[in-house]
Amino acid sequence: MTVAQPAADPHLIQLLTPEGERLHHPDYDVDLTDEEYRSLYRDLVLVRRIDVEATALQRQGELGIWAALLGQEAAQVGSGRALRPQDFAFPTYREHGVAWCRDVDPLKLLGLFRGATNGDWDPEETRFALYTIVIGSQTLHATGYAMGVTKDGAVGSGDVLKDEAVIAYFGDGASSQGDVNEAFVWASVYNAPIVFFCQNNQWGISTPAATQSRIPLYKRAEGFGFPGVRVDGNDVLATYAVTRQALDSARTGQGPTLIEAFTYRMGAHTTSDDPTRYRLSSELEAWKLKDPLERMKAFLFKQQVADASFIEAVEGEADALASRIRKGCLEMPDPSPMVMFDQVYEEMTPLLRTQAEEFATYHAGFAQGGAH
Asked: In this structure, which CATH number among 3.30.2060.10, 3.40.50.970, 3.50.50.100, 3.50.30.80 belongs to the domain 2-330?
């Protein structure tokens, strides 16, 4: 069954209702195969299981901290699957679903939060930059990279294997940072091939989005001279459709787009946060009715493109993934303290070499019982 786009919020792009009814939009739509629809649901389930397992590991003292994405799976999977292999993604510290879509092993994410690595994946190979803790700084990194893409002639050539777009992820809280607004300026005046993807999960830690902006976030783009669009971030199909079109626009030389994925952070900001201190439980319960996984599952059943055996098989795959993650995390070796000096600069400087030698002597003293 399909129905027309609802008039309740004409500015919110939606292709699936919370009940799983299929909608159609005149400017954004998708026509996927049954296997592609099933694959998107599989992504949602596996990404959530990664998140749940990592949260449990942190609570058991195996990770130093974890930034959960619970509730934001559709925004990340939809946008991540819209990327072409040559596109480059710049994440914050919560884009575990995008990392999954870029073939980053979840264990590499856990290694970062465990303190065993600084992010043990190759950004050039995965086209997925390392996580960024400094709020909003990755938008400037992404914009500079996108400007370089233009200078390399990888925009507007018509070659689908060459033309490249960049996507920068950030949250509603980061939208108030100077770095983000500076990135908007540079991207606009240089017509950079970049998509700014804001996951508005309603809370910048404990600060509600309503106190950060007098207008919807997507409307900020107009002041910088490029288009903005708001999409239902709990709708994986709508997110995919909107991001795909924005990326296509960037690759063909039409410049940046701001996407505001309107979603909700169902968990804590990080595992060191207690959201019950600043938001009502009724708010959380209302958003649970818009759960992105249940929405997609309902769609699959309504369209008769999946059955109970498929759902069971995906759950079994998720169980196996969780088991692998847990085992791999617990067996992860601690790094040598000396590796902290290895990647500070491309080449070791004299001062850094001196510091490394002094630290090596200091550290060795513990084994000899001489250091204090």
From this structure: 3.40.50.970
